[in-house]
Structure formats: C-alpha cells, structure tokens
Amino acid sequence: MESSSPDRAAFELKAMQDSIYREKILRARRQTPEERLADVFELTNCVFARMHDGAMWQAGLTNAEEGWEIVRRRLNRLRKMHDAGRFVTEPPIRQS
Amino acid sequence: MTIEELACAVLDACEAENVEHMLTGAFAHGLYGIPRSTKDVDVVVSINVGDAISKVVSQLSGVVRFEPQIQFDTLTWGKRLVGESVDPPPFKVELFELFDDPFVLSQFRRKRKMYSVQLQRETWLPAPEDVVVQKLRWGRNKDLDDARDVLAVQGPETLDMTYIEDWCTRHGTLTRLREALDGIPPLD
Asked: Which of B33, B59, B156, B165 is 20 to 30 A distant from A28 in Cα terms?
C-alpha cells in the first residue's frame, strides 16, 4: 500500500463529511424557523417510538408498558453518563 | 403523550402561575440550527414570582413526577430540577431557575416570542446569539456541534457577532467560537 493512502482516505472522508453536513445546513436554511421547530417535535416523537419498538423486539415483549420501562432505564443510564461531573446535588461551599 | 403535549403542559403551568419563562435546549437549537430529536423539555423559569419553581412543579403534578433533590450545575452553580412525564414515553422536564449570572440574565432579557403551530401558541425562546454563547460556554461535544449548526444555518453575517464575541471573551471561549466558525464547510 502506498504511504499516501491513509492521508488520501482521510481527505476523502473529510470531503464526504463536509458534503453531508453542507446538505444538512442548506436544507435547514430552506426551512422557516417554524418548520425547523416542527421538525424537532416530529423527530423526537419518532425517535421515542423507534426506541420503544427496539426494546419490545429485543426483549420479545408484548406489553407496551414493559417496553417503556426498558426505554426509561436506558435513558436514565445515558443521562447519568452525560451529567457526570456536570451536575451535583450539593451547593458550592461559600468562601467567607 | 407527545413531546408537544408535554411542552404545552409545562408552558400552561408557567402561565397559570404568571411565571416568566423561555424554552431552551433542543427547541432553541432546532429553531435556529439543524433540527434534531430531544429527550427533554428544557425551560428557564424566572424567580420574579416567589418560589416560582415550587409553584410550577405543583401545577404539573399528575403530568410530571419531579425528583425531590435540586441539582446544581458545576459551571455556573445554577439550579435545576428534573422531572419525568407520568405517562409514557418517559420524556424528561428540566426546570432551570433564573439566577444572577450576567449572561443568563442577558439571555433572558433578550428572549423573543414565536408562534408554534404544534404548540398552538406563542412561546418565548432565546435569541440565536444567546444559543451560540450558551452552547460554547457549556462546551461538551454536542454543545459545540449545536453552536456550529446555529452559526452555519443563520450565517455569521446575520448575527450580532460583536455580542457573541464579547460574551465569549468574558467566558474564555473565543477559541471554541473560532473552531466552530472554521468547522462550517463552504456553502457556495
């Protein structure tokens, strides 16, 4: 393999990433603020429905509430990871 | 329950108690940047009404179950109360108390009203410049991506960059701002 191949692959990957990102930006620019806000609602409701579908399928469940319990546990685990070190339950110690 | 039904319930609770408020988080980012899904409804609540958070929490009983423990963010020591929707899906609600941080106060003063078809109402949201400054201040990978998205979609030429640079200077985040701007690909 030529020594320049990894550089070329990285260059091509970056170009592809930029192209995808550019399309996302241009699409968002074509939308009105109201349309973009509407997308947040739609995407969120869809993502939760897909997470629920996935949990039900993975655990072989037929009870929807049990599926939501799995989603709840997974999201809480993610939240703990994201919040680690960022939020605490004790206020700062005030220096006199 | 849908995320918009939950957002409406939170806004109704604020309005019922005459508590000034604004939606933040993914709603603000989606309004000005590239829409993405979210797991929570984030609302900044003013404390001009005494014990505002308790009043909003009380209004939301039956819809949102709040954790009893107030949390403090380790960057600004602002207070946050987290709750979860009683009915599935398990959406989170985060209430942030307005406090005497100069940027937080400026952001709240500059909030603007927008009509949402999904919410069937006008609602308060931060200005785009403040979303950028806030995201750069938090500085997690997702926040930096969000700041870059808003800069890219709005275009720096349409934003008050002097305001953004001023706050970034105060917060020590000018390097993050430059990196976000450099991360925008050519759009022509």
From this structure: B165
